[in-house]
Amino acid sequence: MPSMPGYFVGKGYQFLMLDRQFGGSEDEYMAAYEAALGRIDQPLGELAAEHADGRSGLRDELQAGDASHFRKHWLGDWWPGKRVEEVLRAGYREAIRRAQEARKPIESLWVCAKEDRFQVYICEGPRQITVLVFTPPPKENAHQPVDTLTEDEPILVVKVNDEDDRKVKADVEVLVPDDKAPIVVHRLKYRPDQPAE
C-alpha cells in the first residue's frame, strides 16, 4: 500500500480469497459457511496457513508469505492492544451467521483510515452481505514500496488527482478536467505476493 494518505480501501489476496470462498452458487457458499463456522475458533493465523497449504483440503489460494504476513502484521505488530483476532473472529462469525439466515454471499473490503479503531462492519444488502474491516493505519511496511503494487484490485476510485495517484502505476482517466486538480478515476492496485518473513 502506498504511504498512507489518511485512508485506504482494498482487498488484496486475503479478502479476495474470502470473497471466492463465500461466493459462487448458493450451495457452494452455504457449505462454505458451515465449514467455516466449524473452524472459526482455531487461531486465525493457523487458518491462514491452512489456506496456503495445498494438502490441507481448504482453498489453497494464499501464498505462504500471505499467511505469515497476516500472522506477523495483522495479528501481531500493526495494531497492538486492539484485540484484532477477537474482533475479526466475532465479526466474521456474525457475518456468516447473518449470511446463512439470508442465504446470501459475503463480500469483504478493508477500509483503513486515520482513526484509532479496529472494527468489523456488516452491511445487509439486498443481494449480499458486505463486511467492512475498518482499521487504523498499519505500521509502514518497508517491504512494500509503491512500485511493487502491480495487480489490479476489483475497485475503482474517483477522486481529485493528487501525489498518491502519481506514485502508483495505474491508468488514470480524467473525468473532470481542471488545470490544478482534475477529478480522475483509476483502478486500485495491490502487491501480488507477500515475501516470506
What does this structure look like?
The protein is of the alpha+beta class. Helix content is 35%, strand content 24%. The strands form two sheets. It has a four-stranded mixed beta sheet. Strands 5-7-6 form a three-stranded antiparallel beta sheet, with no helix packed on it. Helix 2 runs antiparallel to helix 5 (84-102) and helix 3 (44-50) runs antiparallel to helix 4 (64-77). The longest helix has 19 residues, at 84-102.
Spell out the blueprint of helices and strands.
Elements: E1 7-10, H1 12-21, H2 26-39, H3 44-50, H4 64-77, H5 84-102, E2 106-113, E3 119-124, E4 129-135, E5 151-160, H6 163-167, E6 173-176, E7 183-190
Helix pairs in contact: 2-5, 3-4
Shape category: globular
Percent of sequence in beta strands: 15-25%
Q: What's the main sheet like?
A: 4 strands, mixed
Structural class: alpha+beta
Q: Mean pLDDT score, rounded?
A: 87
Rg of Cα set: 17 Å
